[in-house]
Amino acid sequence: MSSPADAHLSPGETFDATASGAPNLTSAWARAWADDPEARQIYDPDAGWLSRGVLEARSAERAGRLAALGLEAGDRVLLSAESSGDLVTSYIACLRMGLVVIPTNTAYGARELAHVIGDARPRAAIIDDPERSEIVAEIARGLHRLSPALELPEGPTPILEDALPQSPALICYTSGTTGQPKGAVLSHANCLASAEGLRLAWRWTRADRLLLCLPLFHMHGLGVGLHGTLYNGSSAVLYRGFRPDEILAGISDFEATLFFGVPTMYHRLASHPRADALAGLRLCVSGSAPLPATLHEAIERVSGQRVLERYGMTETLMLASNPHSAERRPGSVGFPLPGVELRLQGDPEEIQARGANVFSGYWDRPEANAAAFTEDGWFRTGDLGAIDVDGYVHIVGRAKELIISGGYNVYPREVEDVLREHPAIEDIAVVGEESAEWGERVVAYAVTTEPIEVEALRASIGDRLAAYKHPRRLYPVTQLPRNALGKVQKHRLSKGEVLPA
Questions:
Q1: pLDDT tens digit string along 470-488?
Q2: CB–CB of 102/193 below 8 Å?
Q3: What is the C-alpha to C-alpha distance for residues 381 and 400, in angstroms, rounded to an integer?
């Protein structure tokens, strides 16, 4: 399934995954730096604007510091820090010298960090929190722990922009129903292809300015927001966290044209007394979780802004988008992006994808790779889809039991494994429950030997799981519904087909 001919491209345009002519991400970014080095590119909430020329010079200097530390092309670097100009500069430095970056959620606790570090075996970690740094030190004593500013001795600048198109740029951890996170390896070519598709589809130009409050450890903020900004030579205003007042004021304060968010953010913006300020933006994009049609309509009602919903995955970057210059249909993710092919296979019908943006496999997971791709090379998304009479793609469910809460992925098995350690829990099932604010919230159905309050259960989890994975409600039941093979029938839980304890 390809897009209708005019869905994303302007008249006379064609898609070429290698249109930049650059072999790697930073070669493509460097062209904008050289073209107008004085132009503002990244706004740091503490330090102010960083120009293109400053980003180029400082990232080259920091690459020298990393090389002096002994890091070489192909080495992995864990990145776990809040958004800042320093973080962006050091991230660029890593990619310029061919290092492979592992973006890691700042909410991860010791258990989650230990898995990522043990699996990817990074040589260094860029961390902005002393407590998290100490946790990492306990996990891997020989690991270099660095601040986002890379306060290290200077060294000669190594060879830069030397990565090949198929060289890994990122390893992004994403779980399956087993609850064991896997590292999706994204190459420079994957990232470039996705950036070029979005440039065409969203009419992204150097004149655009993005309000970027999405975290840079998440592919929505990093792989779409930051990469797109650098690829197109445009500019971005960084925020540490999401506060509606700041975003709505920033539209005029920074003369912004773009905002990317998750449905939880749009829910809060729609109910804000100054929501009409959204009308000042050229484009609002929503992703990472389904945008309810009612919320789409509410935003249009208060601001006139029709949010553009898109669809992507860690393993594929962006796959589909509502059109920029045609109907943005509520409840739909639009059409396949330029260079992307989608098809529906199986019963129920699963969305499968292929294109230059699709990764080649998981880090050190040959069995998972065999399961992730069809025999003819299509990636199995695990999402169930449908196509309406006009060709718009709709996500109708998930083959995998993934919960998306506030734009973050939560895998029930991982949460269940931790909850089962509670002495009063005999049986447990974790599912997503519809939430107007979060899209879905994590809830648990439990067979227990004694009453448990959800607050006490969350306290018992502590930092073994990030807070967004903690159950928000606990439903006591006499037993969990199971099929003849003993598998919990989670669809019956969401329909209330259980006996309360």
A1: 999 999 999 988 875 567 8
A2: no
A3: 9
Nearest to 440 by CA among 234, 263, 219, 297: 263
E strand residue ranges, 256-391: 258-261, 283-286, 308-313, 317-321, 335-336, 340-345, 350-355, 361-362, 379-387
**DSSP code per residue over 78-129:** EEE----HHHHHHHHHHHHTT-EEEE--TT--HHHHHHHHHHH--SEEEES-
Element (DSSP H or E) covering residue 334: none
For the chain, domains (ranges, CATH) are 1-23+189-216+225-287+294-400 (3.40.50.12780), 403-494 (3.30.300.30)
Amino acid at the residue 124: A
261 in Cβ contact with 284 (< 8 Å): yes
Examine residue 330 and say whether the peptide bond preceding it is cis (omega within 30 degrees of 0).
Answer: no
> Among residues 10, 28, 11, which one has the least CA distance to residue 19?
28
Query: Could you say which residues of the chain have pLDDT below 50?
Result: 177-178
**What's the first-to-final CA gap in the chain, in angstroms?**
48
pLDDT at 181: 87
Nearest to 77 by CA among 163, 166, 69: 69
